[in-house]
Amino acid sequence: MLPRSPEALPPPVQSGFSPMIVCHCNGVSDRAIRESVRKGARSHREVALACGAGRSCGGCRPVVADVIADESVERTLCLAAPALAAAS
To answer: Is 78 a domain residue?
Structure first.
């Protein structure tokens, strides 16, 4: 059931965006997948074992792959930031 007014919506989370359910079979959000990747999961299988996303029908695997790739890029940029700052 949808809220009748914007005031009835839950407050936004700290980042300003609500979590998005990626795996509907197991109710796993993008944030849970990101957290699994940040803790070391690097493949569909490792994410599935860590948080359950992609363990059932597999329909979410393309989005899981996108989240893994996004987090990998973010990690690379964070690791490279000191060297980039020193070079400029």
So the answer is: yes
